[in-house]
C-alpha cells in the first residue's frame, strides 16, 4: 500500500470516528440542530423558532408549536460544539388568560417566557423575589423572553404583570 493510500485510509477512519463521537455523545455543530434534536427526542415539534437570545455559555430558543410555546436552552461545549441544556417540551397556551407564561432555571441562569393573548398588553413586568423589577416592551410574534442571572440562590420568580398602553394592569399572576 502506497503512502498516499495509507493517508487516505487513515483520514477516512479518523473522520468516521469523529462522526461516531459527535452522534453518540449528543454534540451538534449548530445551536439550532441541538434544539431540533431535543424536540425530536421528546416527541415534540418541530416548532417554529421565534427568537434566539444569547446568554453566558449558550442560547435561549423561544419557539411556538401548534397550541404550545416553549423556551429551550442550548449550551456551548468543547469549544465549538452545542448540546441541549434545560428544555421545555412546551406549555399549552391558555387563551383565556391575557398572558400565558412559564419560567425555568438552570444553575444561575433563569428565564421567564410566554405568549401574549390580549393585544392590549404592551408591557410585561416581572418582579423577582428580592424586589428587582425586569421589564420588556419588545415582543417576538406576541411572545416574550425575560432572562436574568443570579448566583445567590434567593432571587427567584415572584410576580408577572401585563400592562396596557396607559399603564393599566391587564394581567397579574404569581408563580405558576
Oligomeric state of the chains present here: single chain
Question: What's the mean pLDDT score?
Answer: 83
Shape: elongated
Structural class: alpha+beta
Q: What's the β-strand tally?
A: 12
- Percent helix, as a range, is 10-25%
Beta-strand level of the residues, as a percent range? 35-45%
Helical run tally: 2
- The run of helices and strands is HHEEEEEEEEEEEE
Residue windows where pLDDT falls under 50 for at least 5 positions:
none
Radius of gyration: 21 Å
Cα end-to-end separation: 67 Å
Number of domains: 1
* Major pleated sheet: 5 strands, antiparallel
SSE inventory with pairings:
Elements: H1 3-24, H2 31-41, E1 48-55, E2 58-65, E3 68-77, E4 81-84, E5 91-92, E6 99-106, E7 109-116, E8 123-128, E9 133-136, E10 143-149, E11 157-163, E12 169-174
Antiparallel strand pairs: 1-2, 2-3, 3-4, 3-5, 6-7, 7-10, 8-9, 8-11, 11-12
Structure description:
There is one protein chain. By secondary structure, this protein is of the alpha+beta class. It has one domain. It is 19% helix and 44% strand. The chain contains two helices and twelve strands; from the N terminus they run H-H-E-E-E-E-E-E-E-E-E-E-E-E. It has helices spanning 3-24, 31-41; strands at 48-55, 58-65, 68-77, 81-84, 91-92, 99-106, 109-116, 123-128, 133-136, 143-149, 157-163, 169-174. The strands form three sheets. Strands 1, 2, 3, 4 and 5 form a five-stranded antiparallel β-sheet that branches. Strands 9-8-11-12 form a four-stranded antiparallel β-sheet, with no helix packed on it. Strand 8 (123-128) and strand 9 form a beta hairpin.
